[in-house]
Specification:
By secondary structure, the protein is α/β, with parallel strands linked by helices. Helices cover 48% and strands 14% of the residues. It has a five-stranded parallel β-sheet, with helices on both faces. Helix 2 packs across helix 4. The radius of gyration is 18 Å and the shape is globular.
Length: 175
């Protein structure tokens, strides 16, 4: 009975705001000790050229899961700007309004189009022909990386998108 009451009591609490969740995630992430590879890959991105200095880069992350968006914002908080869209339909106005330095594309999206469809559409836009588009998915099976790279993505990252994987991939693409 006590367990049932505790569960019911939890359900009655007010939902947290996105900024409160971001703060909580940031605190949890910052308490994780950095690995040597994360430090090395960060240094590579931040020291090679201005183009790969994170504070000078803008990103569009096309992702339909809010928790993945929050994790990305916390992990990549030193980017110049980050915009989010949960579908190609919502990404298109952002792509037309602003030129991003790179795009992270989830494969499973809301709306009529998936990430592969979105890749083809964005690659047809003259402004984005030279902009790296990186595939991201939680459903990474053997051979998926090659499949996505052969489809035209410039890089591939299996979720969760952690800073060391992102900076390493960005460094190899941008330099």
């Amino acid at each position: 009975i006590d367990e049932q009451y505790a569960i019911e009591a939890e359900d009655e609490t007010e939902p947290q705001t996105v900024s409160a969740i971001e703060s909580e995630v940031e605190a949890q992430v910052s308490s994780i000790p950095e690995t040597e590879s994360a430090v090395e890959s960060t240094e590579v991105v931040e020291t090679k050229s201005n183009k790969s200095d994170l504070s000078s880069l803008s990103c569009l992350y096309v992702e339909d899961q809010v928790d993945s968006q929050i994790l990305f914002r916390v992990q990549m908080k030193d980017l110049k700007s980050i915009e989010f869209a949960d579908s190609l339909e919502k990404a298109l106005p952002l792509l037309k309004r602003q030129k991003f330095d790179f795009v992270i594309m989830d494969i499973n999206l809301k709306g009529e189009y998936n990430g592969l469809d979105a890749l083809r559409v964005i690659q047809q836009m003259p402004t984005y022909q030279d902009v790296p588009i990186i595939a991201a998915t939680a459903y990474a099976l053997s051979g998926d990386k090659d499949k996505f790279l052969n489809a035209g993505f410039n890089g591939f990252i299996a979720k969760p998108l952690m800073r060391d994987k992102l900076t390493s991939t960005l460094s190899s693409i941008l330099n």
